[in-house]
Amino acid sequence: MSSAKPLEGKIAVVTGASRGIGLAIARSLGKMGAKLGVCSRDSHKLSVATSELRSLAPAVLEVPFDITQAAPISSFVQVVIKNLGPIDILVNNAGVGWFGPAQDASEDNWDTVLDTNLKSVFLMSKAVAPGMIERKTGHIINIASLAGKNTFRNGGVYCASKWGLMGLTGCMAEDLRQYGIRVSAVCPGTVDTEFSPHTGKDPAKLLQSEDIAHAVAMLVTQAPQSFISEVLIRPTAKP
To answer: Does a structural domain hold residue 238?
Structure first.
């Protein structure tokens, strides 16, 4: 394994990879030598992102689909394994937000946020974990949020999804560590993406997508005898 390409020969799956944090993570892992399986609901944006990623990574497989459903997730995982190889790294990044008083949220608002931010992580991890257990190695990294540790006005639905994700991540870590699989949560503060409005905030003072990608790169290059369970990321200056 080349020190310049620490993930050479590894297969990494990144969800929500068509833009923002997911694309930055895929870029970073591809530059480190990993072959990439990427997915997103937006086929056009995913195709554009894949064109860029193919200039960085040794191989890229793209599949657009709805990540909240078990059947397409299972098909995606099998296609990645068949075409690239056994999955070594899973980054559950796909996420959406709805912000407003919880009592004003519709059932559809709730289902969309919880299915995307929490259910999809359960389904993707469930699909990938058996192969990792069989090989007794692997990384599962869930992109959570400081909203999974703190509450704020108008954040009820979003916080519920991220608090749930933190609970799921911690329990998965305990369930899978006996097989040499490390499960971690990365919890960013406000990131300068199109994900949510940042009215009145200076974008230059916000976290950048590359900051989260840097944390993921650190996690997947740890020495095998330890793992970092949580990474909390805040901007240096308050925006």
So the answer is: no
Q: What tokens were used for 11?
A: 């297969």
Choosing from 158, 168, 219, 235, which is the catalytic residue? 158
Structural domain includes residue 239: no
- Tell me whether residue 158 is one of the annotated catalytic residues: yes
* Residue carrying structure tokens 């200039």: 55
pLDDT digits (tens, 9 = 90+) for 11-29: 999 999 999 999 999 999 9
Q: Name the nearest CA neighbour of 226 among 170, 171, 177.
A: 177
Q: Is residue 3 part of a domain?
A: no
pLDDT in tens, 33-45: 999 999 999 999 9
d(CA 15, CA 72): 13
Angle at 124 between CA 123 and CA 125, to 5 degrees: 95
> Residue 120: which of 161, 165, 68, 185 has the closest Cα?
68
State both tokens at 28: 């970073």
Residue 183 lies in a domain: yes
Assigned token pair, 106: 């519709």
pTM above 0.90, yes or no: yes
- Domain residues for the domain of 106 are 11-233
For residue 77, give the nearest of 31, 29, 19, 38 by alpha carbon.
38
